[in-house]
Design brief:
By secondary structure, this protein is mainly α. The chain is built from seven helices and no strands. Helix 1 (about 1-30) packs parallel to helix 3, helix 4 (about 130-140) runs antiparallel to helix 5 (about 145-170) and helix 5 (about 145-170) runs parallel beside helix 7. The longest helix is centred in the middle third of the chain and has 42 residues, at about 65-105. The model is unreliable at about 30-40 and about 110-120 (pLDDT under 50).
C-alpha cells in the first residue's frame, strides 16, 4: 500500500513538473505562437527535460517521507519559476538594447525608415540595400536574425563597392587610376585595422555588442561605397561639362 501511495505521489509530481516545464518555456519565450507537430514535440521534450530538474531531489526524498518531499518540491518549483522570470527579463532587456542600437543607426542613415512622415521632401530616397535591411530586420528582430540580415546587406554593399571602384577606374586617366588604386589599397588596410579595433572593443559585451560590431562594420563599408560613388558623379559631371 505504501509503495502504491508513493507511486501516486510521484505520478502527480511528474505531471505537475511537465506542466511547470511548459510554463517555464512559455515565460522564456521558447514556445512559438503557432505550434505544429514538430514544434510541439520539441516543446514537450524540453518540458520533460525541465521536469527532471524538479523531480531528482524530491523523488529521492519521497522514498523516506512524502511531506518533506513535497516541501522540497515546492521550494524547487518556486526557485526554477523565479529563474525563468529572470531569464525572460534578461532576454527582454537584450532585445530592447538591440532595438535602441538599430534606432540609432536609423537616425544616422544606416537603416532608413521608409515610412517616416517627418522626412524632408529634399532628402534622397533610401538606398535599396537600406530598404532590404530594414525589411529583413522587421521580419526577424532576434539576435540571429539581425546578424543574418546585416551579413547579407554587407555582401550587397561589398558588391556595390567593387562596382563603384571598377566604374570609377574606367573613368580616369592612367595616372589617376594609379592614384585611386593606391588610395583603395590604403583604405582596405584601414578597414582591416578598424575591424581589429571593433573586435577588441566589442569582445565582452554579450549579444548586444555583436549587433553593434556588425552594424559598425556595415556602416564603414557603406561610407566608402558612397564616397566612391560621389567621386564618380563628380568625374562624370566634369566630363559632361567639358564636352559643351
Amino acid at each position: 500500500m505504501k509503495k502504491t501511495n508513493k507511486l501516486t505521489h510521484f505520478s502527480i509530481m511528474l505531471a505537475l513538473s511537465v506542466l511547470l516545464g511548459f510554463i517555464g518555456l512559455a515565460i522564456r519565450g521558447h514556445i512559438p505562437s503557432h505550434l505544429g507537430t514538430a514544434s510541439l514535440g520539441t516543446a514537450f521534450a524540453s518540458a520533460l527535460g525541465m521536469a527532471v530538474a524538479y523531480l531528482i531531489i524530491p523523488s529521492l526524498i519521497l522514498y523516506f517521507n512524502e511531506i518533506i518531499a513535497w516541501v522540497v518540491y515546492v521550494i524547487l518549483a518556486v526557485l526554477i519559476f523565479i529563474g525563468s522570470i529572470i531569464d525572460a527579463r534578461r532576454s527582454e532587456i537584450e532585445t530592447n538594447s538591440q532595438r535602441l542600437i538599430i534606432e540609432e543607426k536609423i537616425a544616422r542613415g544606416l537603416v532608413p525608415i521608409t515610412q517616416q512622415t517627418t522626412q524632408p521632401a529634399t532628402q534622397p530616397a533610401p538606398h535599396p540595400i537600406d530598404r532590404y535591411l530594414e525589411t529583413c530586420i522587421e521580419k526577424d528582430s532576434t539576435t540571429a536574425g539581425i546578424g543574418n540580415c546585416v551579413n547579407k546587406a554587407y555582401s550587397m554593399w561589398d558588391k556595390e563597392l567593387n562596382l563603384a571602384y571598377a566604374t570609377l577606374m574606367s573613368s580616369l586617366a592612367p595616372t589617376e587610376q594609379q592614384t585611386l588604386r593606391n588610395a583603395q589599397r590604403k583604405w582596405i588596410s584601414y578597414r582591416d585595422a578598424e575591424f581589429k579595433v571593433m573586435a577588441a572593443i566589442y569582445t565582452n559585451g554579450g549579444t548586444v555588442y555583436i549587433t553593434m560590431r556588425q552594424l559598425d562594420a556595415l556602416d564603414l563599408l557603406k561610407s566608402r561605397v558612397l564616397q566612391l560613388q560621389g567621386y564618380l558623379t563628380l568625374v562624370q559631371e566634369s566630363k559632361g561639362g567639358g564636352s559643351h
